[in-house]
Each structure stands twice: as structure tokens, then as C-alpha cells.
Protein 1
Amino acid sequence: MSEKSIKNLVIVESPAKAKTIEKYLGKDFKVMSSVGHIRSIPTNKDLKKGQKAIDTDRDFETIYTVDSDKKKTITELRVAAKKANIIWLATDEDREGEAIAWHLCEVLNLDTATTNRIVFHEITKSAITEAIEKPRNLDMNLVKAQQARQILDRLVGFELSPVVWRKVPGGKSAGRVQSPAVKLLVEKEREIIEFEGSSTFKVTGEFIKSGKKDIIKATLQTDFPDEPTVHDFLESLTEAKFTVGNIETNVAKRNPLPPLTTSTLQQDANSRLGMSARTTMSLAQQLYQAGMITYMRTDSVNLGGQALAQMSTYIKKEFGEKYHQIRKFKTKSSGAQEAHEAIRPTDCSREIASDDARAQKLYDLIRRRTLASQMASAEIERTTATIAISNHDEAFVAKGEVVLFDGFLKMYGTNKEELLPILKSSDELTANQITAKETFARPPARYTEGSLVKKMEELGIGRPSTYATIIGTIQTRGYAEKGIGEGEERDAIELKLVKTNIARDVIKEKTGSTKGKLLPTSSGTVLNDFLNNHFTNIVDYGFTARIENELDEIAESKLDKVKMLRDFYDPFHELIDGAKDIDRSSVAGARTLGNDPKTGEPIIARIGRFGPMLQMGEGDDKDKKPRFANFPSSARLETITLEQALTMFQLPRTVGKTDDGQEIIANIGRFGPYIKIATTFVSIKDGDPFTITEEESRKIYAEKLAADEAKNIADFGDGLKVLNGRFGPYVTDGKKNAKIPKGDDPTKITAEQAKEMIKNAPDKPKRGGGRRYKKSAK
């Protein structure tokens, strides 16, 4: 083979994948990467006058242009393709990969009917060799399904987002699949707001058998509605005798879960490792490209014959014959577009797969769950004993659990045991202590990333390859956020009976933690209500799921792409045309909380350009402008109270004066709470601007001055200074900065030198397009 010719050119998506594959194919193959997608649908600003990126009047003809950052890559691929005798397109095996292969055919002038298309669900020598031996042609049905999805999403973005900008305060954009995800969060939050809390008293007891030290923990099967009732019950137990009644023992089997799919991988990684969906998929991609796991986008729970044989050998060798059990799981998803194999290790005996600690943790989770799926059931012996009360019909129940055979739990699970001492019917027990604790009904649980993925899968919203993007997008756009709240303290009553004495205590417990949960923002809630009222189909779960099914039908050649797009677009576009008549004020999401007791002005909570805000006064009177205040960080637009809002209008607050008589003002700004002295702003970090004292403020201000003094090397007046900065000493005049060259002594810089350095320094870049924040009223 001459230096100018290439016998076999293989094109994959990622450079990392290219390196791994090149190790297996030998000198007759050159492997290059497209570095992901190479073409996309252009935005309007990139089109010539009169051009349409998607021509809805001509069967949705679509323009694709090479991405600006891919032009060099395409040039290199074109040069290599001209030299190649045979070209193999080895992009990923899903619709996105098929579409990339089609785009490569387009830009490299390859015949889609004859170009070799190869796919493999794992990057191993055997899988790649088998793919080379069995090439196929490009699957244009898969390509059409991907095009249809992309066109739908772009049409919604092109046409609906401008409506959102004009009509929804704080609205940025709307997505075809992201919007139903936001709706799920909004509906859950409203369930929680509407939840009516209640409490009951649960009674637990600790008993001992005569002459034994073992504690028997038991729970009363009856709850009590209030404190007086449960107190009377405890009082009656001072004269009671406790006897072991019926004892039941049974052996139950616990079966392992199926191997991982994209959805269950994201759920498990979130609940067990605390990983976001996006992080999970990024790490899984690394493991796949390194040849450690099979393809990470799949709906399938199937395992191939070769993998099953390998696991069988490994389990028998490591744990013994009795731990192995062949299991075949059936894929539930009827629209499984990537149904090849579940996510599994390419070599189940390999324990270490990455130097990256997070990737290794994810690999370990995948490996353990895969192996566990082919292991025997665990056998658990459960014992239940009732404890009769001599003067009551109610009974306590004690439960014990012993693992007789751990089975798959050895690989994936926990062997928790709650042992009961040996008991027999009619044994008399002594109450060590009996406790009645107030227990509150739990409101519906907020979604985590993992549980949101599970819910979207149940409803048919999105597909495995899109879950991480959906969850990431709604957070990036500011429609949802990860909670960080530890919850609020509440009082719970606890009564404890020891012998004949009943002690009452009020204990503190946390409730309503939002840490790690997904919460809809006020902007997300207002947008959801707008779409729900005016573009129902966009947020309708059934409609969104139907679209996904229709995309699957296109991929299976059961539905025409243009018909599907037409059926969606025509009624959607009619709604867009009618949107000009929507009154913006009707979707503002404003709430009048009440009136300020001092001025009588209405207090309004509403969405502003940059999120929720508070307003005092309507602004109808030209001579009396409304006042504005920051929104409390812990409050929500739907639930904020008048009392909370009035507190915010106490800012800015005059705290006192400095030693030299300057006024100290406390307030909350863009970067949190601060105090201001003249033109100097000092962050008070975790301090409270409502309660900070003059003494505390003076101390913080003094520390700030001391820090500035340490930073100040020389002051020549008129703002010209030599300062010690984060990246070393520099000269500034307040407008321009000039770095002092390494090796020069900053203490010996003269005023003339400083002026010359500033004169020659480049101007600071102008800030553009940044956020503007309303300050609290002064």
C-alpha cells in the first residue's frame, strides 16, 4: 500500500473511540473521527435572504450546514476519503449515529446504497471484527426518524420561543419535550402545597425476657389520634402484663433486578452514587469508548449468549455452583429503538476499569448489577411474634429477619439482619420502656433526577438518549433548580413510659428538606401555566408520548415522515398565529399579598425579567413610583406570605455609624447580603442584614480595611495605585490595569512609571449582554 493510498478508512464519532478501535484493526485500517455531529440546521441569522431553514410549504425540506468548528475536520476527512479504497462508517448504533453516518455520506459524496455501515454494541476486538465481516447499508428509516425529531424540536423552538419571550415574563424558550418535564415538577409542587398535614402517635416498645439481656423491639399495631388518648393508653400499661402470643416463621425468596438500561442506570447512579443524569451518561460514554462496557444508550435488558457464558464461568469459579442461576429478562418497552443488549461490562472478570474515581464507581455499579442478575435468589427467613397486652385487645408485633442464603446479595445488595431472641408462645416479657412519638403524615415526595427519569419513562416522554439532556436543559434555562435546603425544624411530642413514670418531651426534627430534589422555579411555573392554557399539546403527556411512538413508527417504516410532521405542524402553527391576541398581563403570575400597614400600598409578588420580585404600589400615580425589593431566597411565588414580603421592604436598613461617623447600611444585593459604608461594599456572607448589629458591622468593616491595606503597595493619588492582586502585583487607575513584569520590585515603582504603564495598557473589554438586576429601593 503506497503512502498516498488508504486501503480501509473507518470513520467513528469520537477521537477516544478511534484510538481504541485502531488498536484492534491493524495496519490496513486508518481510523478517523468526525468529533460528533458535523452538520446542523442553521439559525435564521445564518441564512440568505428568502431562505428557510425548514420549508414547511415544501414537505419540510431542510437546509443543513457544516458547523463552523467542524470545517477543518471535514476537510481532513475529504482528503482521506479520496485516498481510501474502502470506507466504513462506524458511528454509534442508534438514530443519532445513523444520522451522523448519513451526513458524512452527504459531505463526502458517498453513495448511501453502497457505503459500508458497521455497528457494534461494544468496543472489543471480537465485536469489531464481526462487524467488519457483516457490513450493512445505511438505514434511511432510522435517519428519517432522527430528522423528524430534530425538525419537530426546531420548529417548536423557532416558532414558540418568540411567543414565550413576548408573552411570558422571565420566559426564555420552550421545548417540545422539556416542557412536559417542567409540568411534572410543577404538578408535584402543587400537590405538596395542597397537602393537608396531620399527625398520629405511634407506639413502640422494648421488651426483655426474664433472665435475658436481649432487647426485643416491637411496634403496636394501632396508632392514636392525639396526646390525651395515647397518654391514657400508656397510663393503663403500668398495670399490664405482656405475653408472647402467636409466632410465625416463613422463608421468602428475594430475586435480583434485571441488568441495567439507560434509564435504570441513571436512576441507580442517582440514588446510590448521587450522580446527575448528565454526569452518569458522560462517565458511561468514557467507559464505552475505552472498551469497558457495552453501548450505554439502550432500552434492552437482554444479555447475549457469549456474555452469559462468560458470567456463568466467573460466578461458578468465584462463588460456587449454587450461586449461579441463568436468568433471561424481557424488555418491557415496546418502542425500544436501541434494543440490542443491556449495559454490561465487556469482561465481567475485570474489576478495575478507570483511573477516574467516579468512572470506576459507575463501572463497579454496572458490573455488580450485571453479575447479580445471573445469580441465585437470596433466601430470607422472616419471623413475626405478637406480644399480647393483658388489659387491651391491641398487640405489639416484633419482627426478625435472617439471611439463610445470600445469593445475589453477595454481589449487589445488603445483608441486613434484625435478629429476634429465641421465643415461644406464653413467654412472659417485661416492658423495659414504651414510647409514643408524634408522627406526621408525609407529603408527596419531590422528584430527584433519578425518579424524574423513571416517571418520564413510564409516561413515554423522551427516550433513553434524551433524558439527561432534558433534565440538564430545564435547569440551564432556569425553569428548574436543584434544592439545597436542609428543611425546617418542627416540634414533635414524645411520651416515654418507664416502669410507672410517664415523661413528656418535645423533640426537634427536620422536615421538608429539598436537598438534591428538583424544584420548579417561579419562571418555570408561569411558563407551564401559559403553555397549559394556550398550547395544551406541548405539555400534554399523552400527546408527547404519541409523538415518540410515531417517531418509532417512522424508524420501522410504518409511518411517512412528512405526514407525521404535517399532522403535528399545521394545528401547532394555527395556535402560534393566534398567540398575538394573548394578553401578557394575564400570564404574569402576579399575586397581591395584601397591603402595607404603614402606607396602605398593595404588596405584589410577581415575575420580573430576571425572576421573582416584590413590588409595593401599583405605579399608576406618575408622582409616586412603586418600590421594589428582593425576593426571599427560601420563598416561592405561590406561597410567599405578606409577612415575609414586608420583611424584605425593611431593607436597605441603617445599622449605625463607623468610628469616624460614616453611616452603615445593610442590604441584600446580587451576590448576597452586604453592608455599605460610603462607596465601599462589604459582603457579610452568612450574616443577616435584618439583625446585624453596629458592633458586628464595625468589626467586619475594620477587617475589610485591614485587608485592603495589606493589598495596597503604593497610592499616588487620583486613583492611581500599586496593588497586590490575586495574580501578582499590578498598577491600576480604577479604569485600566497593568501587570507589573515578573522580577520587578513593585515597591520601587514611581508615579511616572505607573502613569506610563497605564497609558500603554489595553482597555478593559466592555461587558455586553450581561444580566441587569434591580436594586432594592433606597
Protein 2
Amino acid sequence: MFQLLTCLTDTHDWRLVLLAGVVCLLASTVAISLFHRAQAAIGKARLLWLVSDAAAAGCGIWATHFIAMLAYDPGIGARYDVELTIVSLLCAVLITGAGLHLALRDFSRWSPVLGGVVVGGGIAAMHYMGMLAVDLPGWVSWSYPLVVLSIAFGAALGALAVSTATRRDDWSGTAIAAVLLTLAIVSHHFTAMAAVSVIPDPTKAGSLLSLSPGALSLVVAGVAIFILGLCLVAAVSDRRSKDIVRKQKVLLDAALQGMSQGLCVCDAEGRILLCNERYTGIAGKSAASLIGRSLLDLLRYRKEIGDFRGDPVEYFERRMADITQGKTSEHILETNSGRTLRVIDQPMKGGGFVTTLEDITQWQRAQARIAHMAGHDALTDLPNRTLFHQELRHALKRTKRAELVAVLCLDLDHFKDVNDTLGHPIGDELLKAVARRLSDSVREGDTVARLGGDEFAIVQVGTQADAPSPSALAARLVEKISAPYEIQGHQIIIGTSIGISLAPHDSSDPDQLLKNADMALYRAKSDGRGGFRFFEEAMDAKARARRLLELDLRAALSRHELELYYQPITDVKSGIVTGFEALVRWNHPSRGLIPPMEFIPLAEETGLIIPIGDWVLAQACKEATSWPDGTRVAVNLSAVQFKSRHLTETVLAALSNSGLAADRLELEITETVLLRDSDATIAVLHKLRDHGIRISMDDFGTGYSSLSYLRSFPFDKIKIDKSFVQELASRSESMAIVRAVTGLGKSLGIPTTAEGVETTEQLAILRSEGCTEIQGYLVSPPRPSADVADILRQDEEQYAAVA
């Protein structure tokens, strides 16, 4: 120690020693700051900061050494070898850089210590290489205990400096590490200088390539400027880095507070380190009361206020066990206040975990609403067809040997009339009222569904012994549905028809059961509506036959199996045939002629009546062009055809393509056509009549509003229904109706045609009542188009004979 003090006081210039200390502290501060930048960076950015740090630290050690060497005066003059001086600088930079790189490696917790030791080795290597660069006219001897002591000082203090810098990145940590590194450099240098003894030898020659102290001063000054430049760069970089960090912190805080989820960061023991406002809002506690507290304390608090179900300790331990195993866990918490929370725990590297807390109450309600809407009718809130099938399948699975499952299919009678006359809003309210009556009529456990339109269905489950019979339920439903409804000031009366199938008697397959109930419903409607029918095997056979007939009917047009028959219409007074009514016939290749009453209703139900009607219209106009001028052709139009938007264009196209005069075409409609949408239908009839086409009302007198339609549209003819004509001689009511209709025709100037005339007695009565035309088997049955010419030649003679 005495030798060290003597070295400092006797052989050194204190002013330069102080300068060396300042440069060393400045360089150490720069080195530690750059080390922190490298520690925070990754990849290439870390390598760049490490290179800069190695240059700053190495140059700082080197500059400190040679400034101190300039302060050293051995009394015999000294110069400095250039090559060894440069090598000493490289040793400082490379070895110090290796130590700093080692300190940042994560392979061991001792990495910073080992790195610091290597940095101390770099200080020693630089110093002793620098001492070799000193060119003296004499010989140097060493005190090896002091040499060892100098190396130990550098290694120990270097290890402390680097370890401190690795652990602490705040301003105080930087200051402590910089002071320790300065002490490592300074203590090593002056201890090593105390180990030096110089023995003068004037005969020893100096190196030719060496620097004088003045030249070395310039070099050291340049290195010092370089260090100051690095210091400036480090300061600016540090300022910018802090600005970036500060801005990132502001953005991070804004992001955390703006999250829709609650976020909480906990340490490895479950203590809360950080949480955002959303988390504190859900937890019901302030951030100040949560930070530093255990998550278990929060759970116990929630338990105390009655907003946590279960055991807090058990729940906390289960979560911590998952975190310890590195598992990401997700939990759903149901609170007593009705909220549903999704909790996700994500372990963090190095211990601790991040918890996200999301209130999914509204989301779950929305999901439940979507699921409900997917299985329920939007208008009535009854189960829809999809959910009905599911409930039916469940019912079939639950039934035991002694139990029955009944499927009831319901269709509202006259509902379409309500929609057409009162409008769809009233119709919708009526459907809601029907749905309520149906729901009130069944037991708990039974299912009422709306399948679509005015179709409803019920699944009835029960044992044969104690359950109300399906027939009793059906009878009660018919009675309840038929009771009057009061809707928006309107009293509405409808009915219902019901089809019933039973499981396992009729089938155990859900689809087949529904199909069987639908067939029974069709039978109930065919039998007059307002009642119910059970499924029978014969219905299935009839349905299959109907399906086969429908398939054949779809191909009948393309196979040219349809043909037209014509029945003459004769003037009562003159006996002249004034026209023919076109009647379609189906000549089936295997079944022969199929009656119109068998396939026309089927065509109307399936919509096939539209292409068939178009064909009839075109064919009748085409064939009528070969008849004498003035002979008209009458074609019936179905109510279904009036649903087509192109009816007017179809009629005009038939006339145009055939060349038939418009006044020779007579279109016959029934009151049913006008019932659908009277305003729209009458508008279409006016368009047709404006083109010269004649319009007649068929089956007059069979509807309840025939007279009102005569006032709404100027028909060109009235056709008296054959049911009245056939009872002329037997029922006075029929005679009165025929007399009233013919009298009405006379007063309005509208010709009347009687259908179904079969006897001379009927003809005589009609003539006496002033009927204009007749049509029926008395004159001629419907005959093929090839016979029309013969009918026209023979009509006068035949009429004279029967008259």
C-alpha cells in the first residue's frame, strides 16, 4: 500500500491523474448506458449496440491508461511504440466486447459475473500490453504480488459493475455500475503502476517507430473526443429512447384503459401488479385497493358480498396450479347478480400471469336469442318446422311400450279469404290469436308448432291409460278455433281441419308420421272441412296413386296426350250453333280417357293448370279459325291462372298466333276467380275486354255475391249453373232462381246460357222464361274437334227434331 501511495505522489502529475479519472468516469457512464440499450434490444439491433458499447468501453480504458501514462514521469524520459499501442487498444475493445456479450447471454445466472470478470481481464490485457508499448532507456522490473492484486481488482470490480448494470436499468443503477467500472479501471491501473520499477540504462536504444509524449497527447485527445462523441450519441439516443418509451407507455395506458375486457397482471404468488379500469369496474374495487393485494383477497370479497359462487380458496388454488404448470386456462363464472364472466389466465415467461376478464352476459343472451329465433316462428313465437321435428324425435325416443305419440296437423279453413278481404296485417293478428288458443289447449310437455302459412302441428305425448285421447284433443281444438275472433274491430269466424297419425301404430319415423298426419288432413278437408280424420292405410295408397297421376300429368303435355273436346252452344230461338265450349281431355296411354274432375283439381293444386290452360287457349284459338265466321269458342279460365302476371299477354298471343278475331273468343270465369283479389282481377278483365274479347260469368247463382259482381263488371254473358237446370221440373226453388236470372239478364241486356240441358221439358221451360242459349246433352255431348264440322252441318235438323 505504501508503494502504491508513493507511486501516486512521487511519479505522477495530479492534474493529469484527475483528467484520467474524469475521462474514465465519462467513458464508463457511456459504456453502461450503451450496455442497457443492448440489453433492451434483440437481434441485429442488440449486436449493433454491443459493438458500440465495446468501442466506448475499450477506448475509455485505453484513454484512461495513456492519460495516466502521460501523468507518469519515471525521470529518464519515455516514448511509446506505435504497434504495441494499437494492439493494446484492440485488446481493450475486443476482450471487453466479449465480456459484455457474455454478460447478456441467458445460459446461466452467473453469466453477468463471468462477463464482468472477462471485462476485468480486458482491462488487464490492455494495461500490460500498453506497458510493453512504453519505450524507456532502461529496464523495467515488476512486483508480481502487486501485478496479481491489480488483476484481482479489475476482475472483482468489473464483475460487480456488470452484474449491477444487468440487474438495474434505472438512473441509480447506471450511476453505481459506472462508478464500479471506473474503480475497476483506475484501481487496476495505479496498482499495476505501483508494481513497476525502472532501472536506467543509457546504452539501451529506443524503437524507431515510436511516439513522443506530445504525439501521444494528440492521439489520446482524439480518443477522448471520440469518447465524448459517443457520450453525446448515447445521451441523444437515451433521450430519444426515453421519449419513445414514454410515448409507448402513453399508448399502452390508453390501450389498456380502452379495452373492452378487464386486464390484470399478477406475480407468481397471485398478487395483483397492474389492472385497467374495466377490470376494477367488474371487480367493484378501485385500482389503489387492488394493487399489491392477492387475487384470493378479491375472491373472498366477492364471496362476502354474495357475488361469487363456490369456494374462493379452492378456485384460487386450482387457477394457480394451472399457472404453475404453464397452462392457459379458461373459466366461466356465473355471478349471483346474473352476470356471466369469461376468465382467461395466460402464464408469463419468468413467472406470473395475465388475466383477462370479460362480461359475456349480453353476448350469451344474444346467442340464446339467436338460437331461439332459429327454432321458432317469428310471428307467433311457436316452434318452427325444424324444432318441431326435433321435439317429435325426442318424444319418440322417450316413449315407453304403453305410451302413444300423436301428431296432429291443422289447417285453417277460409283463412285465405280473411287475408284477401281484410289484408295481411289482420291475417297475421289472426294467426297469433290461433297460436294462443292452441297453446292454451294442450298440456305441459306437448308441443305446438307453426309449420308455415296457416299450417300448425301438435305433438301429443301420453300413456293410453291416462292421457286425453287425440280425438278428444282434436274435437276441443275444432271447437276452440271455430269460436269468433275480435281483431281490430272485425269479428272473424274461421274453422280448422285436423289430420292425426299415431306412433307406433302408424309409424315410428318422424317424417313418415308427419306425412301420414298430412294425408289425414287432406282427407278431412276433402270430406267437408271443420273436422278431423285419423290416418288410414288406404290414404297412403290413394296418396301414392295421386302422386303417380301427378307425375304422368307433368309429362302429358310433352307427350301430346291432351286433346280438346267441344260442346256446342245453341241459340234457343233459331236453333243455330253460336259457338262451342272447349273442354280438355286427357287420353292416358295406359288408363285411357281420364275424367276432367279427376285431373283438373290436381292440376290446380300443383300449378300445372297454368301451362295446361295456356295450351288449351292456344289450341282452341287455332282450331276455331277453321269454323265459320261468327262461331265463337269459349275457354274456361281457372282462378290459378289469374295469379300469373302474364295472363293478358298469353291470351293476346294466342289470338295473334292463330289469327282468330278477338270477338270470337269468349273467356268464362267463375265467382271463385273474383274472390281471390277482385280489384286486380277486374282490372285484368277490363284489359281483355278492351281488346274485344268477350267475358262471361260461369256457374252464376252458386256464390253469395254474384249480383255484386254484375255491378262491378259488364259481363257479356251469364251462364246458369246446371244444378239449377237439372232440378227445374222437380224443385220450385230452382225454377225461381232460373226465372230471376233470365229476368235479370233481360233487364241488364246480358244474354243467358243454360248449362246441362238434357230433356225437352227443360228446354221448353227455358224457352218460356226467355233464356237465350242452351248447352247440354240434349243438343250434343262434348265431342272431338274432328266432329265439329259435322255438328255445324247437322245442328239445325237436330234442333228442329227435338223442338
Protein 3
Amino acid sequence: MAGLLVTGILVGQAAYAGHEAPFYPSFYPQEIRIETLDRTAAAAGWPRTRVHAYVGDDVFAGGPVAADAIAVNSLRSYLVLTFDAAASSSAQTRCAAAGRILGALAPGGTSYVPHPYPVTPYHADYLEQFDLARRARAQYSAQSGAAPAGHALRLRAIGRLAETLVPVGWKANAGEGDATLEEIDIDQLGDPAVPSPGGWLAPPWTKQGWFQAHLLYAGHAHGTTAAAAAETAYRRLVTGAYRGAAERIDLERALVTTLVAGCERVVLGYTLRREYFSAEYSKGVENVGYDSQAGLLAAIFPRTVKLKDFPWNGWLRLGVASTPRAAWNPIGGLGDEFGRLLWLAVSDPALLPAPYGGSWIANRVRISAEATPGSVTVPGDAVRPEAGSGLLRRVGAGITAQQRLRYSAVTSAFHDGTQTDFADLIYPYIFAARWGGERPDDGSSFDPGVARSMAPLGRWLAGFKLIGVTTESRNFGDDLQFHYRVPVVDVYLNHRSSDPWEAAAVAPPWSTLPWELIVLMEEAVKRGIAAFSEGEAKRRGIPWLDLVRDRATGLRLAALVEEFGRLGYRPAALTELVSVEEAQRRWQALGAFHARYGHFLETNGPYRLESWSSDGVVLQVFRDASYPEGVGSFDGYAIPLRAYAATIQDRGDRLEIRADVERISRYQRSYEIERVALGTARGDANDHDQPECRYIIVAPNGKVSRTGAGRFGSDGRFAVPLGALRGPGVYTIAIALFVDGNSVNPEVKIVEHRVAGAPVTASGQRPDQGVPSPYR
């Protein structure tokens, strides 16, 4: 175990003179105030800027929108039709009925968008599914005016949206009818996201359309054969059992096609969440980043937003419609809207969800370009935590993994002044091994929700090894330098992904919590002081663990901290990594933090919880010199831009695409987005100037032949190579251009390219037209 020992993963230091600094650790607002606020009150207070943004709901719903209010749209829910088991005898009958229902829904007045396919323009894999979505739209549209077969359908409408859209003559009472029409929030799909010590909130592909379709159609696939086929495709996708991007996309397409084919359940459309922020000239905010599916309830938002009157300071006020309901603990709580917003501001995960895509972006860890897909040998001195105990055991000789990722974790100070070290980085692995298994006999070391959250790590992690510790420096001149200690860790995975960032998000070596705080929560649960989750709290008859608002629990936790400080306690899994003296310093610092601030919600994130009430919190910025991200670090994500294929020419061996791109034209405190032609490459151009041209080529038999990115030439055109296409027939090519990874609502162009050798018959039909496609 000597290879695991580390002596110093300590500080980021800064030295500077008294002049204006070009680097400010942490992000723009110096204070964030979050309060529960009724929508009517928020709208009435908008002219006085009572809140700068209203999170989670349309503050102006049903009323006039303030002139200085700017909306951001994000995917909110699906509108879903589910047939009763005995309502029809065949898939054809159900699909035809769904088409008639789609055509009969009342128009207008809502954020509902008709779209009879589960992968929407707000999913990053929309390009890969675009032709299938277009085909579904055409098929259902053809049925919309058809006469009904048999009796007219009667629908049970559940929820306000369904009640609004279903014509009166189609509505049935609760105990009657042939089918149910309801709105299903994307947040309701699957198990609730349970925060973990490592920041793993959900599976790394959670924003992908194919994954959400699998959750949405669970239990509604037609027949045992189809259900088995869909499950096989799903398992291959989540374990990386494919040979490249084209085969992966084939599996995604086959999965969704299989799920929708039987029409037991049919997605008829989706709705958008509309949230507003104030852009008032002086008192408003700007530089607002948001997420394509979470909207303003996203980690990117507090990392970009800034007040117009304060370049790198100011007091940000946020309104939330719902009151805090969940307990404030970062393992089995903080799951409601208020708690999630609080946690997004005070925590600092290793990676952030790509705001306008389906992958991930770096935050506190980087992954090396040397990340190696395919089978790799795990070094014998790598370790893996033992299930149940969490003890670190050597992997031993002869073990292979499917993927190796090299992480560089940029460390910093926790809010109590202690420094992140290797024990903090890897303790989430230990926690997962201890809490992710089966229920033990006494039940005190098990929580079903936490176990489900930890399960992906248990399946994926093959082992990890500390490679060394390096130093990153930022030099703004002789009198202003920042230095950060960066441990480098190799992580070996039992599965893989064609997207290394997606694989990296499964379980990076990182924690936004100090190890002693995780241990404190574990001990509280094992000793019956409180439970991680609401369900376990009810089952055991004990409080739901709250690190802030439950004073009685806080006093009991403080007594434990004092006891552990005297003993220098550390769990058995850390005895070779943490000395008794270091453990004593950690517990003493945690106790001092609680004594000063009155709570235990301590992190190494950009904001610290300063004060709270029954319906609000105040967060203070953590401008510690060791914090590696600074004002402006994520500005590139504040205004998502788009690109368009202006012209496409088929040259036989290639497609040539000329592009238009959006550019920002700024004037004082406002800006406009202009669409301009993309010129030739410039030597001084940066990455933001040039879009990426993505394409997918579908062969005549419906299989994906190729996918990739078009090459940008010196003539200012993108080229998509076609010369290597094999087999005669008509190939369908879907093309879209993305700027800085923004794949939201793209303009997708379809080109049909014919490879010679497919003769036309006397009936005018090519032979390939009669071949059944797996996607029809």
C-alpha cells in the first residue's frame, strides 16, 4: 500500500501586490440570495428587481411579460399517450389511433410542441435520430384525418396540459376510456437523482434522448421479443459493447425504434420550460448560462451570471416557486428544486453537464488525451475498495479493463481552511463500496436510494492508481502568481464509451466534501442519529439527516466531531493514508467551522452557506487563492450560438457545405446576434470562430454507414467524404453544424446521395426500396 501514500496535496498559493488583479478566484456575484417567492409576488416586484431571475417556472405565465425580461427555454416534459391493455388488438390499430388523436389535440396557448417521437431537438442525439423522427411525423400526420375504425376513442386526461389539449368530446371519466394522455416531466423518469459524495447525480448519458426513451417506455415495449431486443441494445450501450461511433448510433436508433414500434405508449410531443431573468440596463444581469434540459437550475448558471452594475461583485437575488422540503444533506437529500439550486452553488463537481449538449465539460478534473479505449492491463499495484468494508485491496496480476482514463484533479481549500488531499479524492470510492451493496442484517449500513446511486460505480470501476502529483501555475507577472497542487490518478473501467468525457463522468477521483464530513454522516446513520434518505428515515423512525436546519441533530453531530477529534479517528480504509495527527487536525477544523457558521454543509465549492431561514438562504462567495476557477472561466457558455448549412453541393465523391454562423455584436450593455457567412480560416481565429460540421450517413438498408465531422478546407467549405461508401443504392445523409458544442434545436439538412449500381425496375422501383429496414 506504500504506493498509495501521499504526503502533500496541499495548497494553491498566490502572491500579489496592491494593484488591480487580473484574476479573481470563484465567480461574479459576491453574494447569492435564494428565496421562496410566489410567482405573482415575483412578477409584481419585477420592476423593482426584487429578483434577478425566477428559477423553475414562468413568472409571467398568463400575464404580460416585462419589457426587460429575457426568457430561456429548456426541455421540460413529454406529452404521452398510453393505451389500455385491452383497448386494441394490434400495433397498426394503436398507431393509427394515435395519429388521429395527435391531429385532434387543441392548438395554441401552451408551450406544447407536437412531435411524435421521443428524441427531440433538445436532445444531443437529435441529429442521429432526425430521419427517424421525420418519418414518424409523416406517418402520424397521414393518419390524422383518417376515419376511426370501430368506436371513437375516449381519453382520460391527467394534468392541466392534457385537460387543455383534449377536445371535450374525446374526454372520459377516470374509470372509463381507452387510453390515458398525460404529461411526464423528464425529471420524473427513473429513480430520483440522489447526490453522492463524488458528485455523481445520475448516469453520464442522462440527457441523451435514447436513454430517456428507455426510461419512458419501460414496461410498454410490445411483446417479449421486442422487450428483450430493446433491453439487449440498452445493455450494450451502457456497457460500451460496440465497436465504434457508427455501431453505437445504430444501437441507439434500434433501441428507440423497437420501443416505439408497438404503440402501446406514444410520445405525441414535448413541452418547454420558460424561465426569465431581468436584463434591465442598470439593475439587471447578463452573461446568463443555462442548460438545455435543466434551464436555470444548472451548475453553469451561478458560474457565468453577473450583475450589470458590478463587473465582478454584487448581490444576486434568485426566486424559486417551491419551498424547501428535502433535508439538506448531500447524499440522500437536497433533491427538491430549492435544495438543488442551493447545492449547485455551494458544491463543485469534478465535471459539469455540457449545458447545450449531452456530454460533459471539465470543472475540477481534466482527462488526458492519452485516455485509451479497448482492453488494457490493470497494474498489479492498482487498488479497488472491497465491497462491504471499503478497504483498499490491490488488484493483483492478470486483471484487464476496457478503458483507462488519466485524471488530473486541481485541488484547493475547503471552507474550513484545510486542503484537499488524496484521501478526499478517493473516499467517495470507499463510500460507494461500503453503501452500494446488498442490505446487511441490521439494516443500519444500507439505504436503497443510496445503493442505487452507487451501483454504476460498482459495475464500472476496475481499479485506480495514484501516478504522482504535479503543479499547475498561473503567472500574471512577477508579483501575481497562483500555484495549484494537482494529483494525477489513473482510473481503470470495466466498461467503456466512445465518448471519453461520458466515461470520465461515471466516477472521477474527486469529492467536493472533506472525507471527515462523509465519515461523520456515515456514523450518524449507523448510530441511528439520522438517515440519509426520507424513505429510510420513515422506515427506521429517525430524522432525515439535515446538516443545517435540524438543531438537535446538529448538536449530536458536534458531539461526535469532538469525540473523533480527541481520538484522531479515521476509518480503517484510510489508516495508511491519514495519520492520527492529520485526522485530529481535520476534525478540529470541522468543529471550528460548525462553531463559527452553525452548520455542517461544508465543501470546497465557490460559495459558502452564510445564513438561512425557513424560506431562504444567503450564500457568500469563497474567494480563496487556492480556488482554481475564476471570474470569466465559463463565459464561453453564456450565449449559445448556432450555425447553418447555407449551401450543400454533391460533388460525387464528397459533399461541399458552405456555412453561416452566428456572431455576437455588442454595444455597451446589450448585444445582438447576427448571422454571417463563414469565411476562410484565419491564422488568428480562435476555437469559437469555427463551427463543427457533424454528419451521419444511413445506408439503403437503414444501417448507419458512417458518422463523423466534415473537414474544413482552405476554401472556407466543409467537406463530407463519400468515396468510400460501399454497396449501391440511395444513402441518406443528415448534416448539422454546431458552435462550441451547442446541439440544441439544430437546423438539420438531409441529402440523398445515390451510389451507382442500383438499376431501376420496369415498375420504377429500385431493388433497394423493397428491402425491409429495421427502422421502419
